[in-house]
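A reminder before we start the practical. When you read a complex entry, don't treat the lines as separate problems. The point of joint prediction is that each chain is placed relative to the others, so the output describes one connected object in space. Small molecules and nucleic acid strands, if listed, are placed in the same frame. In the example below there are two entries. Take a minute to note the order of the lines before looking further.
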Amino acid sequence: MTWLKLVEGYMPMQMISELAICILFFAAINFSLKKAGIGIPKFWAGVGVWIFILMYLKYRIYPPIPFSVRAIYGTVSACGIFMWVSGSQPEWEDFKRPILNVMDGKTGFHKAIRVVALVLIPLALGGYAYQSFLPSFEEPIELRTVHPAPPATTKVHGKTFVLQTAENPYRVNPEGEYDQKYTDAHIVSQDMGRLMKDFASNEDNPWDPNAEGYIKYVREGGEIFFQNCHFCHGDNLNGRGLWAYAFNPIPANFTDAGTIAQLQETFVFWRVSQGGIGLPPEGFPWASVMPPWKEHLTTDEIWKVVMFEYWHTGYYPRTWE
Amino acid sequence: MKTTQMIDLSKKRDTMETTSRSPLTLAALGVLTLSLMLVGLPSLVSAQEDVPEGFKSQGLPAQHPAEQIEAGKRVYFTKCVWCHGVDGAGDGPGADRLWPRPRNFNAGTFKIRHTASGELPLIDVDLMQTVTHGLPGSAMPSWEGILTDQQRKDVLAFVTEELVKDRDWQDDEFETLTVLELDKLAPKPATPESIKRGAELVQEKKCVECHGMEGRGDGNAFNLKDDWGFPIQPADWHKCWNFRGSRQDPYNVKNIFRTFSTGINGTPMPSFADNTSVDERWDIANYVNSLCERVNEINIAGGQVTDEIATTLSTSQALPVDILTDKPKANFVVPSKYTEGEVPTDEMDERWKTAPRRWIALGGQITHKPRNFVNRIDDAWVQSIYNDTTISFLFQWDDRTKSVAEDELEFDPTEVNLEDYGVVESPPGGSRFDDDPEHPESIAAAQNQYQVFNDGIAFEFPVKWQELPAPRKPRYLWGDEKFAMDITKWTADGVLYAYEGTGWDQDFSERDDFTEQMKIAKAEWKDGRWTVLIHRPIKGDYEEDAYLQAGQYIPMVFFAWDGHNGDAGRKMAVSAFYYLVMEPPIPKEAYIYPVLVAIGMVGIEGWVLTRRKNKRASKS
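Here is the predicted structure of the whole assembly.
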């Protein structure tokens, strides 16, 4: 099923436009069938559209939305369809007709349906009641704060860093001074693929033999990343590494605009150096497998790998101003 | 083999050209193909007798334009260089901690192909699919959605033109492309007969010598090496989602058929195109595919597949696959079923058939040193049944090697800090700068050379889980100072012990009294799989024993050790937090209320119909 991309995560605009296109398509079919003189009865059109919406919500979106939310959407769309079918008195009569025909048992066929419905509805309701009485054990929903409030300071290898004032010592311009503007100008481009800006430039290409300063440190950070971090955070820093399937919470996706893009660099430095165990309780420190990297890396290496993460994703760290 | 290909080449290409020049022949061939497929013959009658059944010869691709190669460099040096290295020798910074290692492009040896054994792959099909879908079971991810189609083509242009150094796609003196026509071969339906024949064929063709009698990759797990001299393991057929060539579609039989037809270049896996018919290959592929884990456990009796087993295999339901991770979907709730009387004492007990089994995903322990970068055990299956006093856990997991430490271990089973005893993690690699082709310090070269420790499995509950305000838990890694963990650990030397854990670096303390009440009902390694059945009381006599209560969510974590991977102490595989739920018996209300609801509904129906009738009567 790789030809059909599911609507991933929460992409409301895509969902709404897809649904709108489908409904327009149905309307067009309905219209042309009517023109051709073989119009679909209002009852079946309404029921059909409603079932389509329910199926769309259930199967088209990934990860699946919970039943309770689908129930709300289902009810809202049922109301919409009801308004549509009851727009005018004749239309409403048209819609009701199949139901009334069955209730009255107009023909032998209608009678048969009436008998079947009379038996099936109580059975289905009873079955549903039985199901809901069975004890069911779904995975409990536990809401975790992904970016909890950081502490004022963090201590790494005996040195205390004040998160408000600390600076990445490798974020430097060719003169060796801290310069966020210069380094921001030499991260990967933000278009599809997030590739380095210019392969031929030793200011943009970390693998250029003449790379110096910032861009050389980026390469060193990348080497550390690909020896330590990619196992979980993935080769494209998108949180889908080798072992992403085994861990819960899943590894952070740095290419998502909601992670490092909206954090200060010192926050990331704190998270990397202290790891999951250093989180406050709202961050679920007990469940995170994020290592406290100060156990494995030097302070310099941590700063370099943080800088690499920004370079590779094409995001600028947030600043205090 | 190379020489035969060379001689055949001119002839093949000539035939190719004649066919392509005559539209009439082509049309006739098309009609013939179509009619053959309609009749249900799965094979094509090839016009070229020297090509194996199901293959056809194809011309070599044209050279890529220089601008495209240049554009590919920008992609390669942003995304690929970190593992594949500056020269494409598979020796980037990440390489030495990976097993399997990143591909060394220089020799032009590529594993997953539609082309005959030993040949170069199709760039626009095979390599493109590899970049698009990744190689599961290795660190190569899917680049779809990250790189555009064009960017993927560009990087392939650069890799194939400049990093493949020993061979050349334009070299028509030495290279041929004999392509498996997979799209034209209709898969044979996986009937019980086909599966049974496949099971016989894998023995006849000696597949089981490497892959093991049950196909768990345990046949020849030790002596195999790839073309670069690194140890390599036969595939475990029960984990199709780890097949390198599964193309994000693990239960698709075509992928197995392709690998079986073309072999895996650079590895001991040969192509079977020359000594099997297409029909036989479908049977084998159907059998191998049917072994990939299903919702229910299927006992295949050491590979001696009877009609009954074949029928079960052909009708069983595939596991749901998580499209984001390309692995089975994990369900974090482990149900335990209530039973009256004794809990099962072996894995053949009928009651296991109704107790749902759960897939426990295991990753390497990489939080604290020594980190485990190669977790040879990447999953386990668990089922549970309990009665009023005892809970039983049935674990089954694939492990290619039975590992029992030969000598007495120097460390105590309660010790967890084992760096001083040689349990160390791999350095990030010392080989990148010293031009050492053998990479002596890489994790791939270290495989099969570890000191052998005991295989093992363990699980833990918070001791005082009742007092934890949800979602709070003790730390997954053996608890913490505030909240201790109740740990049950089994090792392959036959020891089952209850411990208390108070932190990742804190030695366990023994719980002797509880240990005496636990029991190993079964522990057996057979055909590449451990089956371990553990009984433990649901309540102990002391404070440090967790009291497991029905109807509650009890946090649970799993651990596994592979002795031949040098696993001991913290070098192990771990799971995320799961929840054990001992399902209480069905309440009586569940039988009473539904009946009342149904009767009520009948009443409502009667009322509505009567009203309608009266209304109509009054109208007329």
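Discuss with your neighbour: Residues 1-48, 430-434 of chain B have pLDDT under 50 and may be disordered. What might explain this?
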